[in-house]
Amino acid sequence: MKRFKVLNPILHCNSFKYNEIANVSRRTWMINSGNEILSFFYQGGSESNYMDNDILNLKCEDSWSNPSEAIKISTIKMLLMFEYCINNFDFDFLIRSSNSTFIHFDVLLKKLNNIDNIEFYGGQINEVKNNFSNDKKVAYALGQCFMLSNDLVKSCVENKEFLINSNMIDDIALGYYLHKHFNLKFQRINRWGLWVRCKPPNFSKLSQSDWVAYTSNRFKKLYKNGHINR
Q: What is the phi/psi pair of residue 184, to 5°?
């Protein structure tokens, strides 16, 4: 197995919008990944699980292709990605990001020197009402960027039926599982200055081309500025 300190799978879909943004990511922030970090995109819609250059193709539907099943599909897709990572790479941490997230890898590597790689779960913590169990609320790290240690990724794969049957979207299902099975202290890594969310504020009203233009311009400016004097 190839060794990396960090895996950075990026939530993806084979569509115009996501492919265009992915191309800008490749030309900007992903360039700075270095030798210790492996960044790649993951998408459904394949007949098998395999890596093609920097795209991990997974044997499942894509969340966007079936709106009625999107919640469960998103969790299945995440778990298939987790399983592929465990079976094919040796790593300490996994940081899952969205297609519109710009990551500062220099900040990430500096911070990782000071944290334990056992039972680590972090991100921008949110709470949501829980309609599926006796727990009134679920605390979870937002899907735009969350980080897990290797042992927690393995645990999710080993208990995938629990996450799938929770009937929650991927990031919420993950938080719910970790809350129920581990006594974890959530790490608010959004305070590290680790990433910038570049999703348009009024995205639901934009055309795909306008969405691409907004996110691409933000990526290019952040990359050009170096987010400037880090």
A: -100, 145
**If you classify domain 2-225 with CATH, what class do you get?**
alpha beta
| Beta carbons of 36 and 109 less than 8 angstroms apart | yes
Cβ–Cβ under 8 Å, residues 96 and 122 = no
- CA distances to 3, 22, 36, 154, 219 from 91, in Å: 6, 23, 9, 11, 27
Cα–Cα distance, 12 to 30 (Å, whole number): 15
Dist CA 162 CA 176 (whole Å) = 10
Nearest Cα residue to 222 out of 24, 17, 42, 18: 24
> pLDDT tens digit string along 35-92?
999 999 999 999 999 999 999 999 998 866 666 678 889 999 999 999 999 999 999 9
The CA angle 189-42-193, to the nearest 5 degrees, is 20
Alpha carbon distance 12, 62 (integer Å): 9
Q: What is the pTM of this model?
A: 0.92
Cα R_g (the chain), whole angstroms: 17
